[in-house]
Design a protein that fits this description.
Structural class: mainly alpha
Strand order of the largest sheet: 1-2
Shape: globular
Largest sheet: 2 strands, antiparallel
Order of helices and strands: HHHHHHHHEEHH
Number of helices: 10
Number of domains: 1
Length: 225
């Protein structure tokens, strides 16, 4: 795999992982509106839309979990990974776009759903760039024994995702603050624990070459049908 192809491939994996993390956090964070809108004065007009928001929460979490599987497939260069990731991103954009539309209509802002939609679109663009003939050929002609690239991609993806999860109160806080209280703090402990675990796992992959080899063991070419 040439340098340009490898860099773009690593960036794609990082973005897919980041999209999965942000989507999962966004889905979990929408729970309060989907199930308890009537308990918050500023969300009172959301109550008639609770069934829709419940569906959005379920679908958003499903998309995030599938995206995690896609990250694994892309790292290992599985045959199904590329097309599966494309479909996951498109599904995420549709679900996220619906979320942003109704949130903007009801509250005047689609945040933080807007962040995940933009991130999904960016990831989709990068993924499509992988299909440039020279880059695609380089990715699929990479030697299976070159496991360090896979380990580096996995380590970077985990580290970035962990940082994003830990920073959730900062990027999601402005739209989840009521009466001076940041409601993201309700999930502060699991966010910090989960984010730190991801960062430590990612750093371990970057620091210990033997772990990289295990991650990159016997990858298969990514192919589109």
């Amino acid at each position: 795999m040439n340098t340009m192809a490898k860099i773009l491939w690593v960036i794609a994996i990082i973005l897919i992982g980041l999209t999965a993390a942000i989507t999962l956090v966004s889905g979990i964070g929408t729970y309060c509106v989907a199930w308890n809108a009537e308990q918050y004065a500023e969300f009172a007009n959301f109550e008639p839309y609770k069934p829709l928001y419940k569906a959005i929460v379920v679908l958003t979490i499903m998309v995030a979990l599938v995206a995690v599987v896609d990250v694994y497939g892309m790292i290992r260069r599985k045959k199904w990974a590329y097309l599966a990731t494309l479909f996951t991103l498109i599904a995420g954009i549709v679900v996220g776009g619906t979320h942003v539309y109704y949130s903007t209509m009801l509250r005047g802002t689609g945040m933080p759903g807007t962040v995940r939609v933009y991130l999904s679109v960016l990831t989709l663009v990068v993924l499509l760039l992988l299909r440039i003939p020279g880059i695609w050929q380089a990715i699929n002609s990479g030697k299976p024994s070159a496991g360090s690239g896979a380990g580096t991609a996995a380590g970077l993806a985990m580290s970035v995702c962990g940082l994003a999860v830990v920073a959730t109160p900062m990027w999601a806080g402005p739209t989840h603050t009521s009466a001076g209280y940041n409601w993201v703090n309700v999930l502060l402990v699991p966010l910090i624990v989960g984010g730190v675990v991801l960062m430590l796992a990612g750093i371990s992959l970057l620091v210990f070459p033997k772990l990289q080899v295990r991650i990159g063991k016997r990858p298969q070419p990514v192919t589109a049908h």
